[in-house]
Amino acid sequence: MPIKVPDLLPAKAKLQEENIFVMDESRAFKQDIRPLKILILNLMPLKEQTETHLLRLLGNSPLQIDVGLLHTSTHQSKNTSPEHLRQFYQSIDDVKESKYDGLIITGAPIEMLAYEDVNYWEELSQIMEWSKTNVTSTLHICWGAMAGLYYHYGIDKFIRKEKISGIYTHTVNDSREKLLSGFDDEFLVPHSRYADFRREDIERIPELKILSESEEAGLYLIASKDGKQIYMTGHPEYDAFTLQKEYERDKAAGLNPIIPENYFPNDDPSQTPKLRWRMHSSLLFSNWLNYYVYQQTPYQL
């Protein structure tokens, strides 16, 4: 089944080129079916790129999904046009009276800031509080996971000496967990972050469970036992070239970045990286949509 997106959303054409089944609003209006309502709070600077990343994975589900896009009105985006935001995005004031089956909170490149120093922290806190009563399950990605664990449980991050950047092997901690249903014992995930969590800080919260981790990259998947809050520190939504673009951006800015680990063939940035984590990424999102959203959400929101 397809995802339903606005007729003119730029990501639609890109996804159709990749043979992803996308249904526009005009066609979806004629179907007598109740799609899942999924809201994406997009905190990334390059919002159109992130839209494509996430819609690609949501579109691989057998469920029909009605996607809405949310942004923080208290932050002025420098990398996405105001016209794009006006046409396709809403703010929390526009949706606060609505109910949603699922919410995705993306990452943001602001790990070095204290949470209270983020200029939209108050609004983000309002959204996360609203999600507890208006959303069946919320998926937090990278900095979104850090913000969520801090807001909901008071778990703070710490800054690493070196950035975690690359493709890392992860293990399944509990094969009975539905989010990991069908996973291999080992699988690959991209990471790109400076911050991390301490295991003991997670383990002291009885409501949380560590589902997956990496010997090199640390904790990866953390979930509340009721399935309403899912936190992942990596970026399974990244495409084959996202880490390359980040590396080249940081190099051009004179930041002397490390070469992403296990990413370029022979660790040679002149060679083309290969996409080796697509199966895990698709399965992760499909499992979340099926077991934590579709199987739990009421028919009448």
Please, could you describe this protein's structure?
Strands 1, 2, 3, 4, 5, 6, 7, 8, 9, 10, 11 and 12 form a 12-stranded mixed sheet that branches. The protein has 301 residues and is of the alpha/beta class. The protein has a single domain, classed as Rossmann fold, CATH 3.40.50.880. It contains 10 helices and 12 strands. Strand 6, helix 6 and strand 7 form a beta-alpha-beta unit.
Give a short overview:
The protein is an alpha/beta fold and 301 residues long.
Descriptive terms for the model:
301 residues; single chain; Rossmann fold; twelve-stranded mixed beta sheet; 12 strands; alpha/beta; globular
Query: What is the β-strand count?
Result: 12
- Regarding quaternary structure, what we see is single chain
End-to-end span in angstroms? 20 Å
Spatial extent as radius of gyration: 18 Å
Low-confidence stretches: none
Order of helices and strands: EHEHEHEHEHEHEHEEHEEEHH
Briefly note the structural class of the backbone. alpha/beta
Number of domains: 1
The CATH fourth-level homologous superfamily: Class I glutamine amidotransferase (GATase) domain
